[in-house]
Each structure stands twice: as structure tokens, then as C-alpha cells.
Specification:
36% of the residues lie in helices and 21% in strands. The chain has 423 residues and is of the alpha/beta class. The protein has two domains: 4-196, NAD(P)-binding Rossmann-like Domain (Rossmann fold, 3-Layer(aba) Sandwich); 200-376 and 395-422, Dihydrodipicolinate Reductase, domain 2 (2-Layer Sandwich), CATH 3.30.360. It has an eight-stranded mixed β-sheet. Helix 4 crosses helix 15 (378-387), helix 6 packs parallel to helix 7 (149-156) and helix 13 packs across helix 16 (395-422). The two termini are 30 Å apart. Residues 1-40 have low confidence and may be disordered. Bound molecules: nicotinamide-adenine-dinucleotide. Nicotinamide-adenine-dinucleotide is lined by residues 14, 51-56, 65, 85-88, 91, 134-137, 139, 149, 166-167, 197, 199. Residues 203-342 form the Oxidoreductase putative C-terminal domain.
Length: 423
């Protein structure tokens, strides 16, 4: 277990937040709405428990993530949010109050629980249609405290039909001792549908590539992914300190790693090679850094500015991933190429609401086709696919992504150590 990561996070984020769980008081309007949804002619309510009252579940001005909104879109009056599990019960209260104030259906009977055990006692073996696990990864993914939240949830809510677990699936190095594989097995043993929050797997452009690969009977020869971060206004300490959120490959480029594996299949982790440009390297000096890295991050914890990794897939194909902390302004630049014999694909603008896909079918033409997917909402597609029992990314696949991203980070760190020994 990486000692410093969870401990640092624990101290900063959740000190003394645990309170008694309690039921949120109902407005009479909300009570009537719930009563209506239980009327004989109404569809059966779709029951949900949120784990984490934060941005992924309830939205943020910084991005499109907001699982509660997608569930409201999907289920309307048949949504019934049974409760929110969060040690920060005050934050959960605020989220419910905001929903009730907006007149959003489904929150009239929502309970607040500080722990999974409290939720388990209150629900007493009740079946839950969906549990969304959106707590920070420092509390998840491992077999022992403080990161055994998944196991506590599985024990407390054993009759859950579907789980959606956010990325990354852990924040500790993936090892037998930390137990990430045990957590995957525990989810598998529930027999439930278990999806993971890699929403780029749900992009329409990704589906278009998959369909053409299948229709033409293509084999993927290689994948090339890149993730260029706009760093000028990035001020969260976690972005700059590897000890807090495991560094830019595990935390950010993980989305592109997951897409790479979707097309390349499982990777051979022992084949991963990584080169980095670090803060001490001349090309790694950043001119627009808006964060006091110098005094607030230990040199050994600073993030690489440029990471270039390559690996073999078990299929024989080759994958590569480049992450750069290099863009000024606020707009990130991401791209995925999938290369097959005769047909090549390039997906860009993945963080916008109109991703574009370039296809070159050089087996029949030298033209490049451009497909734009306007108003693509992968978060909605992801929720809909999970509800239908076919998640676009499974927990098992998300664990493979996690293992690959750590293998990339560790190969880079190993190379730096070897270089230092040689000098
Ligand atoms: N898929 C995506 O695009 C996407 C986008 C944003 C965030 N995320 C992921 O979602 C997760 C949460 O991120 P966030 O931005 O919502 O964080 P956040 O800090 O806004 O909220 C996290 C919440 O979890 C609560 N929490 C802490 N320990 C808990 C525990 N043991 N049990 C239950 N709740 C607990 C915290 O009190 C906090 O309210 C992270 O893994 C993040 O990477 C994914």
C-alpha cells in the first residue's frame, strides 16, 4: 500500500465528518410525488443508492459529469433515490435539498447514511436496482481499511442488481497485498452487473469504430493514444502531486488507456516501456504554471511533464500512449488512433459535445471520411447501457486499465532510477 496517498487524502478530506445517519425531512410536495409513483398504475420505481455526495454524482461547473442528472433523464417519475452514503452528511443534505428545491422527482424519501453499515441496517436486505460508487479512489479498490469501501458496500447491500464504480478503481499500487483482484472477484461473486465509469468507452465514435472493425472483419494492429493537459489554470494540488492522486497517467490518461484496451485487448504488462520528461529536465520547465509547485510539492512527488509509453498487447498488437503537461489556456487535446490493415481510425475532440472521427479506408480510397457526432452524451449512454445490463466498460476491464496505468508509471520511474545510477 502506498502509505502517503490515502493518509494524506484522509487528513485533508474527511477529518471528523462522520455523523449519525438520518432521514432527510420530506416536503409535503415531495411526499405526494413519491406516493404517486407507488400508485398501482405507475411503473415500478427504479431504486438507486449514491455513494459519495460529490461532483461525479451531483455535478460540477468544471465538466459534464453528473450521474444523478442522467438517471433523472432516464427514469423521470419512476426514479426513487433510496439514499446517499457519505461521511460528509452535511454535503449529502445540501444535495438533496437542492434537488427538492428544483422540484426534481425521486428525492422525497432519500435517506442519508454516514457508512455502508448504516445503509445496510436501514435497507435490511432490500433489493436495490443500482448503486453508484462515486467516493474518492483512496477509499476503494483494496481488501483492507481505509480502502475497503467496495467490500463494505457489497456486504451491506448484497441484493444490488447493478453497480457503477467510478474510475480509477483504486489509488494504491495494484498488488496481491493491496488486494485489487480480490475486490474484482468479490464484485464478480455478487452475480450483479458491474460497470465502471470510463465514459469514453460509451462515445458514439467508439461504437462506430467497433462496428466497422466487426463488419470488415479487421484485426487491430496498433493503438496510439494521446492526452495533452492544459495546465495553465490547473490549481488543485492533486494534479501536481503524485502522492495525492497517483500522477497524470493513473489519474488523467487513464481514460485513454481504457480506450486503448477496448480496441487492443489485454496488455502484456511486462512489455511496458516508458520514457519521461521530468521537472528537472530542461524541456520540462513550464513557463505558465499557475500553482506554487516549488514550495508545496516535494521534488520526488512532482509529476512528469511528458510521458511516452509503449507496450505489446496479448493479441500481438502494439499500444502507445503519450501524456503531456504542455498546453496553455484551458482546452485539453485528446486523440485515439486505431490502426488496422487497410483501415485506420482517428477519434478527436473526445471532451467536447461533438467528437469527430476520421476514417481512412485505404483499401478502397485515399479519401478521409469525417464523421461528427453532435450532442454526444457518453454519460447518458453509459447509464442506459448499464441499466440494460450491458456496461460499455466492466469492472474487470477497469482493473486492467488500472494495472496498465501503474505499469506505465512504474516503468518511467524505474528508468529514471537506472539513469541516475549510471550517471
Ligand atoms: N468518469 C468521469 O468522467 C469522472 C469525472 C469526475 C470524477 N470522477 C471520479 O469520481 C470519483 C469521485 O470524484 P468527485 O469529483 O465526485 O469527488 P468529490 O470530492 O467531489 O466527492 C467525493 C465524495 O465522496 C465522499 N466520501 C469520502 N469517503 C467516503 C466513503 N468512505 N464513503 C462514501 N463517501 C465517501 C466525500 O465526502 C465526498 O463528498 C473519483 O474517483 C473521480 O476520479 C470520474
Amino acid at each position: 500500500m502506498d502509505e502517503s496517498g490515502p493518509e494524506l487524502f484522509l487528513k485533508r478530506e474527511v477529518a471528523s465528518k462522520v455523523k449519525e445517519s438520518k432521514r432527510f425531512s420530506l416536503s409535503s410536495r415531495a411526499s405526494r410525488a413519491i406516493a404517486c409513483s407507488a400508485a398501482p398504475m405507475s411503473p415500478a420505481p427504479f431504486t438507486v443508492v449514491f455513494v459519495g455526495a460529490g461532483e461525479i454524482n451531483f455535478g460540477s461547473p468544471e465538466g459534464p459529469w453528473n450521474h444523478s442528472k442522467r438517471l433523472e433523464n432516464r427514469f423521470g417519475r419512476s426514479l426513487a433515490v433510496l439514499g446517499i452514503i457519505d461521511p460528509d452528511t452535511a454535503r449529502a443534505e445540501l444535495q438533496i435539498a437542492a434537488k427538492i428545491k428544483q422540484g426534481t422527482h425521486g428525492y422525497g424519501e432519500t435517506a442519508i447514511w454516514a457508512t455502508p453499515e448504516a445503509a445496510g441496517q436501514a435497507l435490511a436486505g432490500e433489493q436495490v436496482d443500482l448503486v453508484i460508487v462515486g467516493a474518492p479512489p483512496h477509499f476503494r479498490g483494496c481488501a483492507a481499511p481505509p480502502a475497503d469501501l467496495d467490500l463494505l458496500l457489497i456486504a451491506a447491500l448484497p441484493r444490488t442488481k447493478r453497480w457503477l464504480v467510478e474510475k480509477p478503481v483504486s489509488a494504491a499500487p495494484p498488488t496481491a497485498l493491496n488486494g485489487q483482484e480480490k475486490v474484482a472477484q468479490a464484485y464478480a461473486d455478487t452475480g450483479a452487473v458491474v460497470g465502471a465509469g470510463y465514459m469514453m468507452c460509451a462515445l458514439k465514435g467508439v461504437q462506430a469504430i467497433q462496428e466497422m472493425i466487426e463488419a470488415k472483419g479487421l484485426k487491430v494492429m496498433g493503438t496510439a493514444a494521446r492526452y495533452y493537459m492544459a495546465y495553465e489554470y490547473a490549481r488543485k494540488p492533486a494534479w501536481w502531486n503524485k502522492q495525492i492522486s497517483c500522477g497524470p497517467i493513473v489519474e488523467q490518461a487513464t481514460h485513454l488507456a481504457s480506450l486503448s484496451l477496448l480496441f487492443g485487448g489485454p496488455a502484456r504488462l511486462s512489455s511496458v516501456r516508458t520514457h519521461t520528461v521530468e521537472h528537472v529536465d530542461e524541456p520540462g520547465r513550464l513557463t505558465k504554471i499557475g500553482f506554487d509547485e516549488e514550495t508545496s510539492v516535494e521534488p520526488g512527488s512532482r509529476i512528469p511533464r511528458y510521458t511516452s509509453a509503449v507496450w505489446k498487447y496479448k493479441s500481438g498488437a502494439v499500444g502507445s500512449l503519450t501524456h503531456a503537461v504542455a498546453l496553455h489556456g484551458t482546452t485539453y487535446d485528446t486523440e485515439l488512433e486505431v490502426i488496422c490493415d487497410g483501415t485506420t481510425f482517428k477519434l478527436v475532440d473526445m471532451y467536447t459535445d461533438t467528437p469527430r472521427l476520421f476514417i481512412r479506408q485505404s483499401d478502397s480510397s485515399s479519401e478521409v471520411e469525417v464523421h461528427a457526432f453532435a450532442n454526444d452524451d457518453p454519460f447518458q449512454t453509459q447509464i442506459d447501457a448499464l441499466v440494460a445490463g450491458r456496461p460499455k466498460c466492466t469492472f474487470e476491464e477497469a482493473l486492467q486499465t488500472y494495472q496498465l496505468t501503474w505499469a506505465i508509471r512504474e516503468a518511467g520511474e524505474r528508468e529514471r532510477l537506472e539513469d541516475a545510477r549510471e550517471e
